Amino acid sequence: MARLYILLFLVQVVLAVCALISCLSAEEDGIRHLPRIAWLLIILFFPLVGSIAWFVAGRERKPVGGSTSWAPGARPAERHRPVAPDDDPEFLRSIEERSRREDQELFRRWEEDLRKREDDLRRREGEPPREEPRPEV
Predict the structure, then answer these.
(1) Which of 60, 63, 61, 42 is nearest to 52 (CA)?
(2) Is 16 left (phi over 0), alpha (psi -120 to 50) or beta?
(3) In whole angstroms, what separates CA 101 from the centre of its chain?
(4) φ, ψ (nearest 5 deg) of residue 131
(5) What is the Cα–Cα distance from 76 to 62, expressed in whole angstroms?
(6) What per-residue string of b and e applies to 104-130 under the rule 16 or more CB within 10 Å gives b?
(7) Taking the CB of residue 52, how many other CB atoms lie within 10 A of it?
(8) What does the pLDDT look like over 7-37, one tens digit per residue?
(9) Which of 7, 22, 58, 108 is the S-S candidate for 54 at Cβ 3.0 to 4.6 Å?
(10) What pLDDT digit, counting tens, does each position of 34-62 carry?
């Protein structure tokens, strides 16, 4: 019989510790009916009843499928889920545009470098530098 009392005492202590941790870590808007200090005192002075009361009536309930809290009788607030970058068409479009701009800039620098090298070779060989074609407007 003594073992049963020890077991029930340990269950009561574990339940009280879990309730205290839950109460202390709860958001301020996630605590119902009483202020946090009142819940802490109830859990400390009446460990079994206070712990059960905290889990039943003190903390805000959370829906099973998500992490948004809800008030009794109200529907959970619909939240926009973040979209993965590879599923976001705007992000993919911005990557494409950036890549295209970088490619054009790289191509322009290569052409400029090639013209400079050709002009240097012509000067070394004594030929006049080539004139750049001017785009007609």
Answers:
(1) 42
(2) alpha
(3) 30
(4) -85, 140
(5) 9
(6) eeeeeeeeeeeeeeeeeeeeeeeeeee
(7) 15
(8) 999 999 999 999 999 999 888 888 888 888 9
(9) 58
(10) 888 999 999 999 988 999 998 898 877 66
Q: Which whole-number Å values give the CA distances from 50 to 11, 26, 133, in the listed order?
A: 14, 16, 88
| Partners of 31 in the β-ladder | 59
Q: Is the dihedral of CA 44, 49, 53, 54 positive or negative?
A: positive
Chain Cα centroid distance, residue 58: 28
Kindly state the DSSP code that residue 30 receives in the 8-state scheme: G
Q: Tell me if 60 sits within 8 A of 31, measured CB to CB.
A: yes
The token duo for 103 is 């490619």
Nearest to 42 by CA among 30, 61, 56: 56
**The model scores a pTM over 0.90:** no
Give the start-to-end residue ranges of the domains of the chain.
2-58, 85-125
Among all chains, which residue has been given the structure tokens 């202590």?
13
Show the DSSP H helices in 26-63 as ranges: 36-45, 47-53
